[in-house]
Structure formats: structure tokens, C-alpha cells
Design a protein that fits this description.
The chain is mainly beta. It is about 10% helix and about 50% strand. Strands 2-6-3-5-4-7-1-8-9 form a nine-stranded mixed β-sheet.
Amino acid sequence: MLIEVLKSKIHQVKVTEANLYYVGSVTIDEDWMDAVGMVAGEKVQVVDITNGSRLWTYTIAGKRGSHCICINGAAAHLVHVDDIVIIMAFAQLTPEENKTFKPKIIFPMENKIN
């Protein structure tokens, strides 16, 4: 049996761009993706603290050091520039693997890595 657990989280980060007419996804500063172990094309959930929206999409690596979080495509109707979001990725592990697994979490607004 596999269980789905939190693998990576970018906690409370400000949306810097929204591009309604892009194909779709969320663009994330590649430094932040590396810090939490996310990869381009990975399925993620975006939770908007500002308005309560939740959506599933996939990641695109943004320019390193840019601090960009760009919501692309139809999701730009739900999440807007200056909204505060949490971006999470999940992994499937056995219960045994989960005993020692630790998710990678960063707090960009606090300049903190956990």
C-alpha cells in the first residue's frame, strides 16, 4: 500500500504575475524549486490564502533569483497578483518509507528554509 504525503512546500509566497493567456501552469523561481525538490512539470496544488481558492496545476521553472510566482492560464481567474499562496507537491510512499521521510519546506517571506 502507498500513502500520499507532503513532499515539498513553498509556504506563504506572494504572487508576482498572472498571465491569463498562457497555456497554463505556475512559474516558480528555480532557486525555490531546487530548495524544496520540485521539478519542472511536477503536479502541484496551489492554495490561495488571500481568497481561499485551491487548484491543481504543474510547475514551470522561472528565472533563478527572480522571486517570481506567476499564475498562468485559467487559474489567473482564481489567483491574482499580490495574493499570498502556498504551493505543495506530494509523493507516494510506503508507510515504512514515511517513518523517516521529511518534507522540504521554505518560507520565502521569512527567508527561511526548513
